[in-house]
Batch of 3 targets.
Target 1
Amino acid sequence: MYRWLILILAGFILWKLFTGDKKRKKAKETEEKDNLVATGEMVKDPMCGAFVSKDGDIRVREGDKVHYFCSYECRDKYVKMIQGDTTKAVSEADAPQKDA
C-alpha cells in the first residue's frame, strides 16, 4: 500500500517538475522576444503582424523604408498591394478631368 502511495507521489512530483519547466521556458522565450522587439532587432511583418528578425532574407524596399516579411506569401501579397495602389494612382492621374 505504501509503495503505491510513494510511487504515485513520486510520479506527481516529476510531472509537476516537467510542466513547471515548460512554463518557465515559454516565459523566458516570450521575454527574450520582447527584448528583441524593444531593441529593434525584430520588426513586425506589415501583412500578418508576425515579428521577424531584421537579418531575414525576405524583404522589400519601398523608397527609403525596408519592410521585412515572415514568408514569401506575405511578401507577394504586399507587393501586389503596392502595385495595385500605384496602378490606381496612375489611372486616376491619366483620367480626363471633368469640368464642373
Note: The chain has two domains: 1-39, 40-91.
Target 2
Amino acid sequence: MIKAGIIGASGYTGGELLRLLVNHPNVKLELATSRSLTGKPVTSTHKHLESFLDLKYENPEAGEIKDRCDVVFVAVPHGSAMDYVPELLDGGTKVIDLSADYRLETSLFEEVYETPHKDPRKAVYGLVELHPEAAEEDFVANPGCFPTGTILAAAPLAAAGLIDIAVFDSKSGISGAGIAPTQTSHYPNLAENITAYKLTAHRHRAEIFQELNRLDQKLRNINFTPHVIPSIRGIFTTAHLFTKETLSNDDLKTIYEDFYRERPFIRFPSGIPTLTAVRGTNFCDIGFEADKENNRVVVLSAIDNLVKGASGQAIQNMNLMFGLDEKLGLWLPAAAP
C-alpha cells in the first residue's frame, strides 16, 4: 500500500484529496496536517467524511512526514510549499505540489507572484495529457484550475500550429476562491451575479502562455479573463481561437480525437459540455464548433475545479508516478443533477 500524507488538509483541496483517496484501493492515508487544528478530528472540518476516516490533524516536521509517507501532497498557499519540498524530496518520498511554487520558471514565478523563491528547482508540469513524462518523476507541480480547462481546450490546435490568436473566457465556481470567506464569496455579493476580475493580468495567464507557447513557439497572442459565478464547483471555459486557416467541424473532430486518443479523462459529449456532467469527477468535457466566416473556432471545456482542476489531477499524477492505471480511484460518474 502507498502511504499518503497531505500537508494542508483542512481546505477544500485537502478535503477532496481525502474524499478521493479514502477509497483508493492502493492507498493508506497516513497523515493529514493542519497547524491551527492539530489534535482535532479531520471530520471536525470535513463532515462528509464521517464513518470513512479516523484521522486527527497533526503538525509534524517535514523530516517525520517524509519518513512516514511514500507520497506527500502539498496543499498550502503559494509561497509556502517551497518551505516543505526540499526536505521532503531529500529521502525518496514522491511529492505532488498543488500550489503555484514550482509551475513556472523561478524568475517568472517571482515576477508573477511577487514572492522571492527559496528553492529554484525544476518540476514537471503535471498536466498528464500534455506531460506523460511525469510518470517518471518523483516531483510534480500540479497545474492551476483555470490553466487546466483553458490549456486542454486549445492544446490540439496549438500543437498543430493553427492558432493565430487565443482568447479565453473562463467562469469559476466560488470554491476556487478557497475555504476562507471573502467579500467575493459573501452570499449577497455572489448570488444572482457574475463578477469579472483581473481582466488582463490574472496570474494564471503565465501558466496558460507557458504551455501553449511550448506547443507552438510562434503563438504569443494569448488572452485570458476569469469570472466568478454563483456555483459551488466547476470551471466553464469558452475559448475563441482564431486560426491561420479555415477549419470545418470534421477537421476539428479529427484533430481533437487524434490528439487526445488514449487519454481517458478527456471526453467529447454530444451537444454543449455542462458543469453538472463533470461535477465531482476528473473528466474534462470538450465541445467545439467552427466559424468558417471568421476563421474562428469556439471550443468549450468543462471541469470540476476541485477535482480535475486540483485534487483529482494530483491523484492522476500519483497513479502514474507509482506505475498504476491513471484511472484508479478516479473512474467515477458525476453527481447529477
Note: The chain has a mean pLDDT of 95.
Target 3
Amino acid sequence: MMTDTTLSLAGATVSLGVVYLNLRPWWKGGRAPKDLLPFGGYFLLGSVSTMCTGGVLGWLAGCSAAGVNHAGRQAVHGATGSAPSGALTHGSLGPLTPEGAVIVFLATVAAGLAWKAAGKLDRRRMVGGAVCGSTLTMTAGVAGALFWLPDAVNSLGLSLRTVLEGGGLL
C-alpha cells in the first residue's frame, strides 16, 4: 500500500537536484555510459516500483514521495522564506501484469546483488537513482517520457513465460 502518490513542486525540486548532482560529474568526466549504471539502473527500478500496487516496492515508492515532499518544503522554505504548495499533475506508468511482476522481482534481486558489490559512492548513487525514479515518475511529464517502460517490462515477462512453458527462445 502506498503512503502518497503525489509529488509537490518543492519535492520535485529536491529530486531534480539529486539528478543534477549525479549527472554533472558524469558530464564533466569521461561520459562513459557505464558510469551512469548505478544511478540510471536504480532510477529505472524506482520507476517500475511505481507500477507496484503493493508490496515493499510499492510502499517504498510512496514513502519516497512523502520524504522528498517534506525535504523540499523544508529546503525551499529555508532558502527562500516560502515554499510552493500543492501537487504537480499526477502521472502513472500503468498496470503491471503478473508476468511483468516477475521481471520486476528479478530486477530487484539483481539490484540487491549489485548493491552488495558496490562501494560507498555507488551506493549513494543507487539510493539517489531509486528515489528520483520513484518520485519523478509520479509526474505526468516523466511518466509520459517513460511510456515505453511498462510495455517493455510486461512483454519481457510474457516472453519469459513463453520460454518456460516450452515456447522456444525465438
Note: The helical segments are 9-28, 37-49, 55-80, 98-117, 120-136, 140-145, 148-164.
